[in-house]
Amino acid sequence: MTGAVSKVTMTESDDEFDVVIIGAGAAGIAAAKYLVAARLSVKLVEARDRLGGRAHTVPTGFGFAVDLGCEWLHSADINPWTGIARKLGFAIDDTPPDWGRRVAWFEGDAAQRKWQAAMEAFYARLERATESDDDRPASSALEPGGKWNALLGAISNWANGAELDKVSTVDYGRYEPTYVNWRVIEGYGALIARYGDGLPVAFGTRVERIDHSGARIRVVTDRGTLTARAAIVTLPTTILAEDRVKFAPALPDKVAAAAGLPLGVVNKLFLRLDDVGARELARESDRHLVGALDRVETGSYQIQPHGWPVVAGFFGGALSAALERDGLAAMTAFAADELASLFGTSIKQHLSPIAASTWGLDGFARGSYSMALPGHAGDRAKLSAPVDNRLFFAGEACSVAHFGTAHGAYMSGEVAAAAVVKALKPEAAEQPAPAAAASHDAQPIPADT
After folding, report:
1. SS3 readout for 384-424
2. Closest alpha carbon to 234 in 20, 76, 7
C-alpha cells in the first residue's frame, strides 16, 4: 500500500458519525469518497491492516509487483477505476488479452472457429435463460456430449470460482461486459489503496454487531462502539452468511441472500522464470494458454505478462480449493506439470514460485468473488436492498451486471452512498450521478481475470 492513510484510533467510548462503513475494499472506499465529498462525517472500519480487501498488490523483489486479487480493468471503457488510474498517474497497459485464441495454439485455426461457435452458442443459451423463471444450473446450457464442454467448465471455474453445476444460469447470463480489458502496470490493488489515501480508517478492527434498533445505529467492534445516522455494509457474502456479524434486530433475509451468493474460490500463482526459461518462452510473451483442453480441472497461464520473466497461473473451483489446502508446493507442482505438457519437461528447472494467493483460506474473505447458486439469481437485489433507509449494503455481490469485479464493487458503493446522501441530506440530492447509473448493453461472457 502506498501513500499515507488516516489511521483513526478506536476507543471504548462511543464516537458519533453521520455514516459508518464496514469494510475498506473497493466498495467501501468508493462510498467513503462520495460521502466525504458530500460533507458527511465518515468512519471506515476495516478488519485487515490494509486497504483494498480482495484487491491486493504485493512486491516481488524483481522490480515489479503482482496482483494476488483483481488484476484486469474489465470493461475498461466504462470502468471508473480507469479514469482514477489516469488521474493518479498509474500506467495502463491497453494490450487486449488473447483469451479467445487458446484453442488455436493447440489445434489450429479450424478448431478455433469451431470452439468460437460452440462458445457463442453456449453464452447465447445463458442469455436466453435470463428471460426464464426456471433458474437451473448453468451446466444445463451445455451441449450434451459437446467437444468443448470441458473448456467451458474450466472457464466457469476461473470466472465464477465454481463448476457449472453449482452456478445459476440466470445470474451467469446477466453479466454485462464491454469486452475491453486493460491492466494497471503498478497493480490494481495498489491503485485502489492509493485512491483510499487520507480516508479515516480504523484498521485491525472487527465488527461484531450492528444494532439498528434505536434512533442511532450502533456498530459494536472488538475495539469499541461507534454510533451513526446510517451505515453501509460491504462485507463479503461469506462473512455475512456465516453470521459472524450479528444484526439486532436480526436480518434473516440478508443472511439467506448472502448464503445464496457464496464466494467462489479462485487463486493465482506467480512463477519466476530464470534467464534461460525467459529466453525459451520469449516467443510466447503475454500469451494466455490453458493447461489442457479436455478437462475441467486445469489452469490458465499467462506467459511473461508485460514482458516480465514470470508465468502467472490461475486456478478456480474445487481444483483451486484443493491446491490452496495442500499448500504452495502442491500448487507449484501442479502448474509445473501442466507447463511441462505445453513446453517440455525441461521448463520445470527454470521455474520457481514467488507469490501465491489463498483466498478460500483467508479469514476475512473465505473466497474470491461471488456467484449465485442455481435458483438464487434474485439474491443480489435482495442483498443490496436498504433496511429502513439507513442501513445499506454494497460490494461486488450487490451488482447484478458487474458482479465479481472491482468496478462492480465501486459502482455499488457509489449507489449506496448516493442513497445515504438522499436519506440524510435530501437538500443535497444534486450530487453527481453514480457511475453505476449508466446503462451498458452487452452480451454475457465470463470475467476471465
Report:
1. HCCECCCEEECCHHHCCCCCCCHHHHHHHHHHHHHHHHHHH
2. 20
Q: Which residue, of 343, 366, 389, is where some domain finishes?
A: 366
**Contact between 165 and 373 (Cβ < 8 Å):** no
Is 154 among the domain residues? no
Residue 205 lies in domain: 7-55+186-261+374-437
β-bridge pairing 57-59 and 65-67: antiparallel
Return the DSSP state at 156: H
Residues 6+ apart with CB under 8 A from 304: 273, 278, 281, 282, 284, 285, 286, 310, 311
- Give the cell for residue 420: 445515504
Mean pLDDT by 10 residues, the chain (449 residues): 47 76 98 97 98 98 97 98 98 94 94 96 91 92 96 97 97 95 98 97 98 97 97 98 97 98 98 97 96 97 97 98 98 98 98 98 97 97 98 98 98 98 81 45 31
Q: What are residue 201's DSSP bridge partners?
A: 7, 44
Q: ∠ at Cα 368 (366, 371), nearest 5°?
A: 100
Reported pTM: 0.92
